């Protein structure tokens, strides 16, 4: 089975077509997919979609994560109270995506850091794995993460390069890769080198849809069914068959998310 470990079918661009998108995901062999929350409303919707029954036998089960993205940190003084209810839902398998984003700086950096640490404490208190969004902020993020050791960490859309890879692995982190593996250009060449060096038991694959669309569809909206293109390129980079890689990713996802 294929796994999409990070998708936003609860996004403005995709939510109206979510049922058809999930059906298409099943048709290409996706067996499980994670719908990611980025604020309170987004997280509630992720859980609702995960619970929505579907008529097609090919429809894969969906799971949800809950979190406040660094872009949205300025809207909250603390972890939303509703999260304390949602975290006990059987479809909620992670806290995220949370972290730091210094590329856009849509929330002040000190506010981002404060909300990041509060949510790490929340995840630790509820024994939940964490999905990280770290963009152009690896140094500060690693300092924070070292203060919260013992958490299961997934570096979504890993962008720390070889510079931070050893430190990420020492923390026990997994790294997720998506459409950028299929792109042309120096940055994607470097990303593929990083991907080849990571131990097999530390990798996951994702779409991050509707963003990060893989080639040859780059420039169009992404969706989970395109994960097959990521698997094909990722398998080639590691000299594996798609089936062999799929088995590895399935085991890694099961161990990290503990989903059923």
Report on this model:
The chain is α/β, with parallel strands linked by helices. It has one domain: Alpha-Beta Barrel (TIM Barrel), CATH 3.20.20. Helix content is 39%, strand content 17%. The protein contains nine helices and eight strands. An eight-stranded parallel sheet has the order 1-2-3-4-5-6-7-8. Helix 3 (83-86) links the parallel strand 3 and strand 4. Helix 8 packs across helix 9. The two termini are 14 Å apart. The mean pLDDT is 97.
Anisotropy-based shape: globular
- What's the architecture in CATH terms? Alpha-Beta Barrel
CATH class: Alpha Beta
What Rg do the Cα atoms give?
17 Å
What's a concise summary of this model?
39% of the residues lie in helices and 17% in strands.
Keywords:
TIM Barrel; 260 residues; 39% helix; globular; 17% strand; eight-stranded parallel sheet; alpha/beta
Per-chain topology:
Elements: E1 2-7, H1 18-27, E2 30-35, H2 40-51, E3 62-66, H3 83-86, E4 92-101, H4 109-125, E5 130-135, H5 138-146, E6 153-155, H6 161-170, E7 174-177, H7 186-197, E8 203-205, H8 227-237, H9 242-257
Helix pairs in contact: 8-9
